[in-house]
Structure formats: C-alpha cells, structure tokens
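Risk mitigation, structural track. In case the binding assays with shikimate-3-phosphate fail to produce interpretable data, a predicted complex structure has been prepared as a fallback.
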Amino acid sequence: MTGRSNILLIGFMGVGKGALARELVRQEPSYYALDTDDMIESLTNTKIKKIFATAGEKAFRALEQKTADWLARNVTHAVISTGGGFYMVEGLQKIGTVVYLKADFDWIYRRITEAPNAKKKLKKRPLFQDVEKARALFKSRYEAYEKVADIVLDVTKKDTQSLARSLLKKLG
Ligand code: S3P
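Fallback model:
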C-alpha cells in the first residue's frame, strides 16, 4: 500500500478492468474513474490501435510511462483502470494500491468473443489479433502481474458488483 489513495487495476486484456472501475465508483462515489488507455488517446488525439501501427509499441510504452509519472505526482481518490501492459511501468506502486484482476485465458477469450460488441473489442486491441499469440503473451505475463500486486482478485466467472463489494471491503 502507498500514501496515495488511488486504486490501480492491472491485469490482462479483456479481464474487465474498466467495468470494475466504473462499478467501484458507482458503489463508492468519493472516487473518480480514470483509464490509462483513454488518457493516452486523449493526450495524443490518436487511437491506441493507430499508435501501435504508426509509432510502434515502444512509443506506446513510453506514453504509458509518462502517464504513470503524471498520475503518481498529481492524482488522488481515483480508481484507475490500466492497459494490459501498464504493470511494466517504473514506479507502479507510487500511484496507489495495485490490484491484480486474475483470470484464466479461456475465460478472458470467451468474455471478449461472446460480448455483444466482440468485433469492436477485438479490433481495438493490436495484441489480441491472433489468439495463439495472445495466449503466449498471457503466459509470459502471468507471474509478473502477481509479483507487482498488493491485492490479487480472482475474477473468473465472478460478477462485477460482488467483486467491487468485496474489494472495497478488503480495502477498508
Ligand atoms: C495492451 C493492452 C491494451 C492496450 C494496448 C496494449 C497490452 O489495453 O493498452 O493495446 O499490452 O496488454 P486493455 O488491457 O484494456 O485491452
């Protein structure tokens, strides 16, 4: 835990970080919800997919680092959902309490592909274009997420409302 009163949600693509952030804020309105991908799109006026295609992944990671540094310096009382690779930034813990949303890959894959807007969900994620590559990326990150987390929340098959309730309880 850190001195900053933010909750930082990390985890693989499609695990439900944004949905949980919105539900946490609904249940605890003293927080404000932020999303690092949205912040980067707003900062650059460019979609994530386009940043990957034109500037490349390295440039995107640098934008994530800039976002992390700014959040650590300036933001309190926020629930911050992050892109699936944000956990790699330096100084993650300085931003707030890091909560890892843990789930198995097949559940994540079904959650994305069975959503009513599945096409859109897949299209906007450059690192989820090939399912086997995504599975390999998941495996390569699996342990790393847990290492940087203060709290691990198993989200497989759980509904967002009860997850938010139990997380708020854990955080006191
Ligand atoms: C990424 C996850 C994406 C987005 C970018 C890279 C990753 O966010 O930041 O496409 O490296 O896992 P979501 O986790 O919201 O899909």
